[in-house]
Specification:
Strand content: under 5%
Distance between the termini: 70 Å
Structural class: mainly alpha
Radius of gyration: 23 Å
Order of helices and strands: HHHHEEHHHH
Largest sheet: 2 strands, antiparallel
Shape: elongated
Helix content: over 70%
Length: about 190
């Protein structure tokens, strides 16, 4: 991950050097925003704008946050499919929109897992498909993870999913027991 601002203090002289060093999104160079947006909408809930800005906010993070002004002013130079500059407020709004969608997607996923809507096999399949899409997006943006990093992330997700699966089984068992108890109580009181 590029953390250029923690290495190099911002100045007008090194702005072009920083932009030239930033090599993300080259695989979609020449693509129109609408094509990138359609591509993402088929696979995720985020827009091309949200994806690009969230990535930039991660890559240009400093101790005080992200370099919103720098990102907004240099957006067309940093991301080939973005054609206009953004205000710092617009950058912040896109980043927050991305974050909200990630949280909502996570809540929806966990609810589906915990309420028993998805079987263990379906959860495995969903996680596999989601990880494939995530890897593909990383590849498209020009990011790569070390094998050890990828394995660590997958192991952490697997541990969480095991706990979710176990919690879902307990909840379903309690629900069935409660329903059986309610039926027994209803039958006993009607006699």
């Amino acid at each position: 991950m590029l953390k250029l601002f923690s290495i190099v203090p911002m100045s007008v002289n090194n702005t072009s050097d920083i932009i030239n060093k930033y090599k993300k999104f080259k695989k979609v160079d020449g693509s129109a925003y609408t094509k990138v947006n359609q591509f993402l909408r088929k696979r995720t809930y985020v827009t091309a704008r949200e994806w690009a800005i969230a990535r930039l906010c991660t890559d240009f993070r400093t101790k005080g946050g992200a370099e919103m002004t720098f990102i907004g002013q240099n957006l067309p130079l940093l991301v080939p499919f973005m054609r206009e500059t953004y205000t710092p407020q617009a950058v912040n709004q896109a980043r927050n929109s991305f974050k909200r969608k990630v949280y909502k997607s996570g809540a929806t996923f966990f609810y589906g897992a915990m309420c028993g809507f998805l079987t263990g096999e379906e959860l495995d399949d969903l996680l596999f498909q989601a990880s494939e899409v995530a890897r593909f997006l990383l590849e498209v943006e020009g990011t790569s993870l070390e094998v050890d990093e990828e394995i660590d992330i997958e192991e952490r997700i697997t541990m969480v999913m095991r706990r979710v699966g176990e919690a879902a089984k307990i909840l379903l068992k309690r629900r069935i027991e409660s329903e059986d108890e309610d039926i027994s109580n209803t039958e006993g009181s009607s006699l």
